[in-house]
Amino acid sequence: MSHSMLEVSELRCGYGPIEVLRGVSLRVEAGEIVALIGSNGAGKSTTLMAINQVIRPTAGVVCFCGESMLGLRPDEVVARGLVQVPEGRRVFARMTVLENLTLGAYLHSDGHAVVSEMHRVHDLFPILKERQSQLAGTLSGGEQQMLAIGRALMSRPRLLMMDEPSMGIAPILVTRIFAAIRELNQDGLTVLLVEQNARGALKLSSRGYVIETGAVTVSGESSDLLNDDRIKSAYLGE
Fold first, then answer.
1. What is the largest CA-CA distance in the chain?
2. SS3 for 32-54, per residue?
3. d(CA 105, CA 174)
4. Which residue among 2, 40, 54, 78 sits deepest, i.e. has the most Cβ atoms within 10 Å of its Cβ?
5. Cα–Cα–Cα angle for 210, 200, 138, nearest 5°?
6. Collapsed DSSP state (helix, strand, coil) of residue 122
7. Which segments in the chain show pLDDT lower than 50?
8. What sign has the CA pseudo-torsion 78, 80, 81, 87?
9. Residue 178: which of 195, 159, 157 has the closest Cα?
10. pTM, to two decimals
11. Which domains occur in the chain, in start order?
12. HSE (CB half, 13 Å, CA atoms) of 76?
């Protein structure tokens, strides 16, 4: 059994006959922010979807808090505390902000805990309280990203997997969202962060992995990766 909160070993999966992940291995310790960076099409999003069983791996190990996730339904993975904020936000556009947040707590029947989580989300993103009656589809991209994060928090995750939270968002809101991720981590939430904003992700995280064409090619302390000439050239524009 793994002693890491999340242990992924030799993970393989794909779409039909096309194999996308070719033996991805990574680990996330409790209390960490770990970054997974790489170019478009490298397999970052597929890795997250294979971890939470949206895509069924063809081989490998996914172990969360000492339990295999293989073969579980995605909602069963969420119920164990492994939760993903998807790429592109995917809020329910024709539902209100409040309804979107409430849906995030659908697995929990403890009304007091749900209210407590709602307060936590509102403290983190006050704009969501101000706009709780507004249709989600009318929010800006950054506000929708806050809503997607808030909805995930309503499920009371132990580890939050975030897929491209800065994509398509104004820089000032990217700064706010990255600050929120740091705040959540300081409060004890473990985070696996997929980002094309490699510099931002590595500055935010303690460790990082680089994935290329479906395999991890480089890993290490984020500070070391920021100073690695290969990473600078390929992902940091230096």
1. 51
2. CEEEEECCCCCCHHHHHHHHCCC
3. 25
4. 78
5. 110
6. helix
7. 1-2
8. negative
9. 195
10. 0.92
11. 6-235 (3.40.50.300)
12. 8
